Amino acid sequence: MERSPTRSLKEIETLKYISHKRMKEVKDNRQLQSKKLGNLGASASSDFRTFSKSDAVKWLGIDYTNTFDRAFTNIKSKYPDRDFERESNRNYAFTLSDLHLFADEMGVPAFIRNELQECITIAIGALKGGVGKTTTSVNAAAGLALSNKRLRIAVIDMDPQGTATLIGLPNFSNEYYSVGDILTNQYTLEPDETDESFIRSCFQPTSIPNLKYLPGNVSDAFFENHLEALLLSGEISCQTDAYKLLKEKIIDVVKDDFDIILIDTPPTVGKIAYNTLYAADAFIIPMMPEMFSFDATMKYMERFEEIYKMLLQAGHEGFYFIRFLITNLVIDKNSTKQQVGANYLAMMRRYFHDRVIPTPMYNSKAIGVCTDFFSTVYGLKNSEYSGTKSHLIDAQRNMDDIVRDIEALCFNIWEPNEFEGV
């Protein structure tokens, strides 16, 4: 087989064409899935699931439906022009915004940080791809935002693959500015617009009212080249200063707008990853309970001290916590993988004790089905879900438990006396 620059360029152009065609198919598929949801009775005004009356009562944490009924009567009186959705059977289908309104009416308190309780930034990353890193990021973000504490959540997609963006912003447009655009200064301010107001505007709203995304894009991979150029030109004086851009240019600007920021990290050890870790107050490392993932994670941890010493030179203030999350754990006793996974889970707990998040993420067909609909496990109602309904319910309950574990870690930082020992 011969090789030549001309032949290579032609091959690359062919690959570009195929990739462009595939991405068009993905976008067309998103539109088709939206139509399917519409045919299944999903809300036309929101991509997110709606809630029945019993769902709403449970979310609000109240014991009696008549308490809810009285609040609903008061709300309809106060807001006579507000429309509440109904399903084909005439039962109410409440949106998450409706539930927030009910919570305010009924005095269910939202969590509000005081001046001593700072925004917590959590990096979610692993050296090995395919271990559930993005699945963890997008589902944990949705779960945290769905809590009746109404935490303000953001996701920053630092992985140039942009998979988190595909799920969090299924109607993503190339007109949106990405995190890489901001970090490489690929934007122009409008008259009277400041960098701070522009950066805030780049966090895109989602179908969950208190969840926003800063998108990622494949072009963000060139952020590494941008940093090298800054170092060569002398605009950045030393290597460690190149690790601070994400924190200083973005996180510090928006930290008062959010309670928790989750950063989806690429499965590499480069300047993007260093920026992510430098910006983080905590670190969650997903790991599948099998040899290749275990081996990659242990090797990563063996070298992590070297990485962190570089962050210390840059001025990192320390992590509140570092935790492992076991993902894709098979619990089907008929599967040969069940015992293997159980052994690795036990081994991780034996080695790392409470550094392993108590609840593992179980292997679930529902995660794959929801992903095909560009959704988290929370985004679809049972009637919209095309698979076995019990699988979706089990996946939601599993993710609820993981979210509670993460939420407890955060509240242990904000309110250490109340959550001591978590």
Question: What does this entry look like structurally?
Answer:
The chain is α/β, with parallel strands linked by helices. It contains 15 helices and seven strands. The chain has a seven-stranded mixed β-sheet, sandwiched between helices.
Structure described in brief:
This protein is of the alpha/beta class.
Instruction: Specify Rg, calculated over alpha carbons.
Output: 23 Å
Q: Strand count, sense and closure of the main sheet?
A: 7 strands, mixed
End-to-end gap: 61 Å
**Low-confidence runs:** 39-46
**What amount of the residues lies in strands?**
5-15%
- Quickly count the helices: 15
Q: How are the strands of the biggest sheet laid out side by side?
A: 3-4-2-5-1-6-7
Structural category:
alpha/beta
- General shape: globular
Secondary-structure element pattern, one letter each: HHHHEHEHHHEEHHEHEHEHHH
Helical fraction: 40-55%
Number of strands: 7
Mean pLDDT: 86
